[in-house]
Specification:
- The chain is built from nine helices and no strands.
- The protein is an all-alpha fold.
- The protein has one domain (3-227).
Length: 228
Amino acid sequence: MSTLDYTADSVASGGRRAWLHRYVETLKYALHVIVRPFDGYWDLVHEKRGSLAAAHTFLFLFLLTYVLKLMCTNFQFISAPIQYINIYERAASLLLPFLILCLSNWAWTTLFDGKGRFSDIYMAMCYALVPYILIQLPLILISHMITVDEGAYYSVLMSFSVIWCVFLAFVGLMEVHDFGPGKTIIFVFMTILGALIIIFLILVFFSLLSDALGFFVSLYREIVFRLY
């Protein structure tokens, strides 16, 4: 191996180690964000303490936790018909609305003078999912170790994880866009409204596309029938 090739390999190896080190640090930083969200989210975006790779990881773990909860939770605490569960459909039923909410939030940014980019919004929302993962993933195992009479604690912890996630998402959007609490509440309401409009437009588009495809298929069959 030539000196030039050895140097190039060393640089590439050093780059991979640096990327891996930063990736691990951005994963660990989520623990700071969920405990101290106000300064945590500010540093996450403005001081570049977060990363999209970590955000992708948290989103994947969130979807995995949701699917495992449906399939592995003790039957006493969940009534999902396992034999009819399509894990891809269930994952998509959370992933698509999540991405649409991020898109809607970004779309309203200009009107509300928000400072966040789409990547910042996406990152903030993904980091807000961490409590769901940390609490509900162990609850899958705990559900097999407790009785129905102790189910109240199970329900409280599940509700607490969701409330914590919603609070973190609210603070994250507030810090990303540099809004006050009142303006953030209005912004969240408009985000939900925008997401509903986007979903409606998507449904209308696919409905029209289906009708158009049906028309052309019928036209093709009619032409073939008359020719033969």
